[in-house]
Amino acid sequence: MKKLFTLTMLFVATAIFAQEEEAKPSLSISGSVDAYYRTNLNARNDVDAIAPGSSFANLNGFAIGMANVIASYEGEKAGFVADLVFGPRGTDAIFESPMYSRTGDIVNQLYAYWNVSDNLTLTMGNFNTFLGYEVISPVANFNYSTSYLFSYGPFSHTGIKADITLSDDFSLMLGVMNDTDLTEFNPDGSYSFGAQFGFVGQYLNLLMDTRFTEIDFTGGVDISDSFYLGINAAHLTLKDDEGGFTGVALYPQLATSDSFTIGLRGEFFVEDGDFGAIGTGVEDSEVFALTLTGSFAVDNLTIKPELRLDSASDDAFMDNDLMPSKSLSSFVLAAIYSF
Predict the structure, then answer these.
(1) 29-338, superfamily in CATH?
(2) pTM of the predicted structure, to 2 decimals
């Protein structure tokens, strides 16, 4: 009996120890690296300025994107995320930094969070924006080049936000933050307010900054097991009637196999006044951009060939003779490895 009791206690202690080991919080490292080749098809490639007016993937020839390293720690009730970026894409994404530190231009996100309950999470620090369909990391985007809507909306915020689960279908986010893209500290004492209302994967977003107000809708629907349709629509108004923009983008994507998907981004973007996004230098310009992207996955590597056509209402580009042109066609081949 003594031997049986001893063995039983040993078994129970081992099981408890194993459960504690399994539940023990741990530090995880993830991220990505990306590089690409880009060439204009109807314009010269020896002039840096001939590229779409949107962010990223605008360098000629063989170019690098960024190395992204994310350290995260998830405890039972709290955790943190430290997201660092190195390279041209990362530098462009956090263009307002460094304001204070010499290393500020490598911090993409840096925040801590507290799971107050199953329905409430508080987050404080620097986090990527909640508006829009696209994000900074190329891993989470289907198209490698980015849209005008993404490029001229906010990139990141620094402040505090509350994510609230209202039910299985409804969610709410409320946040108070520095003015947009002021990610290291607040230089002028002004703040912005953000809100997001979610319903089954569809999100209505509001951002009220001291410089602008933006309303954004982001969502999508699975038409079938292999066909998905995403959508993004936004309207931004600068204060004091200084202009703004309105745009809509559709993202149909068709999976032809487990390893290959083809998708199209069709975007219509309109400037109110001389907002400066399209690059025409005149008021009330508009641009229609079509981006056809293939996505081929090999383990953790994704290869993306991409054909893009930007067509503006006014001269926004230059042709092979460096003469003003309303259209630009370009080709991109990207390689993205995630870990």
Answers:
(1) Porin (2.40.160.10)
(2) 0.89
